[in-house]
Each structure stands twice: as structure tokens, then as C-alpha cells.
Amino acid sequence: MSIYNKKVSFFIVFAFYFFSVFLLNFYVSGDQYYYHMFYDAASNGSLQDAINLGRRMLSAGEPISLSILWVGAKLGVPKNLYVSFLNIILFLGVYRLCWKYRCPWYAFILLVASYYFIVLMTGAEKLKIGYIFIIWSLVSSGYLRYILVVLSITSHFQMLAFIAVFYFKETVSQVNQILKNGKTSKRFIFLVVSSGLVIIPIFWLLSEVVLSKIISYYDGELKFFDAVNVVFLFIISFIVFRRWDYRVWSVLLFAPFAIVLGDSRVNIMAVSFCFYFFLVYRKMSNLFVLSLLGYFVFKSFFFVESIFINGHGFG
């Protein structure tokens, strides 16, 4: 069976869109209550009004994600239909990535039915947009790839932690190259300069919002136990790859973020990081990887059940 052909993919996308609309119609409380209020209010104002509204109603300052939501609101598209369209873009990005690395069809199905994918579909609006850009950057090349990376960070500041780990090896390599022979790649320079020109002014203007979020996540204490899941992922990665290299040890770079910000904010990025390398190095059919996917699918059942019962997934 192959899901990587036009007829099958069209049917899957069609079915996925209606499933998304159906599920979102039940997700009416929690953070989504405020997102619906924001979406309705944003339809009556300018983009600047929407960004100011996002700061007040959502404690959000990320300009790209707020701008994208504002576009849908101004066009008069019902929120659940518009967000389902964004879910399709997310889905197609994952589909394209899986096609690129020849992911087995059963692993792909488990992946899009897993807990964190359902969370991105439903309860994590801004993070979803950040993931859309980062996933499509992984199937792009050249300068477009780095532009999408910058857009990802400015869609959700949390993506900065993911990018920091993901590009850690390349950054260290480029710095060593500069120290040794004073040279580096043009694309790396482009990434650093463009990121600086875009992100630094945004952080400067929104420093109060960013700091208040970090403080609220930090909660005044270090959460060492929250790094357990990261360590578990590290162990799984080591078992799967059976060697000590960047694909394995870099997972531990998420541990400091988990200790400071909490595992609820970091786990999704650590899991995404691991599965990207499982995908790239053709390990999606590995028994340990499939078992991990099976666990996340099992976990997603309770999340979806909570949506139907409580109106949100984190009941």
C-alpha cells in the first residue's frame, strides 16, 4: 500500500480537512475561548489593532502568527474553517517530509494520529504556525529555507529553543571554521544577519511580553524532574542509532530548557527533533520508534476524549 500518489493523497487531505473542522467545533474552551474572542475582535480592526489585541487578550507578541490569524478574520472566514486550512498546510508539510525520506505508510499514519500532532492541530494555535514554517523549511533549500526559519521564530518565540538545538552543530562548525581560516558560508552569514535584523528589534519592542512569559513558565523554581522525558528520548535515540553522535547527544540540549521552562513547553520540540532524525535516517520502521509512536497515539485518544467531554484537550 502506498499513500504517496495523487489519488490517495487527495482523498487523505480531503478527509483530514473535515476531521479537523469536526474536532475544532468541539474545542471551545481553554485557550481557544480567548483565541475565538481575539479572532472575532480582530475582524473589526487593522493589523496593528490585532497585534495590540493579541498582547492584551492572548499575552502574545509574535507578529507573524497574529498577522496570519488577522488575515483570516478580515476575510470573514469562520475561525474553524480557516484554522483547518492552516492544519492542511501543516499536514502537507509533514506529508512532503515523509515522502522525501520514504517513510513507511503505517508510520506516517501513526505520526499524524499522535498526541503532539493533534495538539498542534487543536490547542496550540501560534505554535502550529511556527511549526508550519519550520517543517516547510526542512523540505526547502537555499535562502528560502533560512527565511522560513526566521518566520518560524517570529511566529512563536518558543521555536527559538528548537532552532538553537537544531542548528547547534552547524553553528559550532561555522564558528570553528571562522576561528581556523577566517571563512564561513554565505548562507550561514545570511541566516545570522537576517535573524538579527528581524528578531532583535522584535525582542526589543516586545521584551516586556517575552520576559513576562519566561517568568511565568519559570515559576520561580528549577524543575529538574521535568528533564526526565528528555533523558528518556536520549536513551531511545541511543538505542535506535547505536552510536554516540549529534543525532543522539544533542537531544540532551533540550534538558536545560525543560528544567527552566517546564516539560509541557519543551517535550513537543524534543520529540519533534528526535523524529526528524528517525525520519531522515530511515528509522521509522524501527521497533522502538514504532513503540514510541504507538504510545503517542494511545495518549492522543485521551486528549481527543477530553475535547469531547471538557471542550479542551488538557482536562
TrEMBL record:
Transmembrane segments: 7-28, 81-98, 105-123, 143-168, 188-207, 227-244, 251-281, 287-309
Signal peptide as annotated in the record: none
Keywords in alphabetical order: Membrane, Transmembrane, Transmembrane helix
Domain of life, source organism: Bacteria
Record keyword Transmembrane present: yes
UniProt name for this protein: EpsG family protein
Origin species: Halomonas daqiaonensis
